[in-house]
Design a protein that fits this description.
heterodimer, A: 252 residues, mainly alpha, Ferritin, 10 helices, 0% strand, B: 92 residues, alpha+beta, Ubiquitin-like (UB roll), three-stranded antiparallel β-sheet
Chain lengths: 252, 92
């Protein structure tokens, strides 16, 4: 599978894949430390799904034929680029050891994710369209988990308070998910996506506020079309590459 | 939080079997947690959840007295043993 005939969609796919990849890693880092065992399994499983989705998206950008070469090229994309070549947003780069923040990020990310997949559900790119249909079964479960937990947590004053505080802290970064990337206008014209992601921002804001009430969204950070990494990116990437770097020639 | 007992069924011919338990805040989350805790590797394709406090439990004093009624065991082993003993007696 290749996107080479739709080269202006490359930045867009890369942004999508990098967000999924880093989000998956962030969720996975909660293994063993979420508030209870069942949540531990559920949260890390969601993270694992995100990593799987990232791999499917990276594969779209790979121009190889045999399986080993495809795997190698996906790894190179996932782990081998320099900082300025990544297109992740600062929302997924942020490191947090606060469970409320981690949970809220999962909820907000999957809300936005739904809008993103919708944008490619009727894409002119067949491979992308197939992936969208395939991941929806998993995304449905992510939203069930987030909404179910929210329902319960919003019942108590303490839960509501902590969720609102965490949502407000995440809000400016969440808005930056919608920042346009290079080639997006052309990708819309080609029918790779049905409209610019930024056009869904108000819908996202309304969906968040429908649960936690009106919040102060603050100012999104400057990401320069997602070319600039935040301070948390390098340590995150170092953690991700820790085992990979033990032996760069190893076959896994 | 409530504790839910999990029952799974893999194949149409199999019966539901107890797989374990999860703690969850409500029925919907129990389904989500059960899915992640017990069916991650497709261990079943059908799922029952029962809240543990909805299970009707027979008290041990109520259940155990029947342990002393060997005459209700009808696998024939006692009869077979007697017949074997009597055969051995007649041939000796």
């Amino acid at each position: 599978m290749s996107l080479s005939d739709r080269s202006h969609a490359i930045e867009l796919i890369l942004a999508f894949a990098d967000d999924k990849h880093l989000m998956g890693q962030q969720h996975a880092e909660w293994i063993g430390v979420t508030p209870f065992l069942e949540e531990d399994l559920a949260f890390c499983s969601i993270g694992q799904d995100e990593l799987g989705h990232a791999a499917l998206l990276y594969e779209l950008l790979v121009d190889e034929d045999d399986e080993a070469a495809i795997d190698g090229a996906i790894d190179a994309l996932a782990f081998g680029r320099s900082a300025d070549e990544y297109r992740s947003c600062h929302f997924v780069e942020l490191s947090t050891d606060d469970w409320a923040e981690a949970f809220v990020r999962h909820w907000m990310f999957d809300l936005a994710d739904r809008l993103r997949w919708e944008a490619v559900a009727s894409s002119t790119n067949e491979a992308l369209r197939d992936i969208a249909a395939r991941v929806e079964r998993e995304e449905l479960f992510h939203r069930m988990h987030a909404d179910g937990m929210l329902d319960v947590l919003l019942e108590s004053d303490e839960g509501r308070c902590r969720l609102r505080a965490a949502t407000e802290k995440m809000a400016p970064l969440a808005l930056a998910m919608f920042e346009p990337v290079e080639g997006e206008t052309q990708a819309v014209a080609d029918g790779v996506i049905d409209r610019p992601f930024a056009e869904r921002r108000d819908e996202f804001v309304a969906a968040v506020e429908a649960r936690v009430g009106p919040i102060d969204w603050g100012e999104p950070p400057s990401q320069d079309g997602r070319r600039v990494r935040s301070a948390d990116w390098a340590p995150l990437m170092a953690r991700m590459r820790e085992v990979f770097e033990l032996d760069l020639e190893a076959r896994w | 939080m409530h504790t839910y007992e999990i029952f799974l069924k893999k194949d149409g011919r199999d019966e539901y079997r107890h797989a374990g338990a999860v703690d969850a805040a409500n029925d919907d989350l129990a389904l989500v947690m059960a899915r992640e805790s017990y069916i991650r590797r497709a261990e079943g394709d059908r799922l029952w959840l029962v809240r543990r406090d909805h299970v009707i439990v027979g008290d041990r004093d109520f259940v155990s007295p029947n342990a002393d009624k060997p005459h209700r065991h009808h696998d024939g082993s006692a009869v077979a043993a007697r017949r074997k003993a009597s055969r051995e007696e007649s041939t000796s």
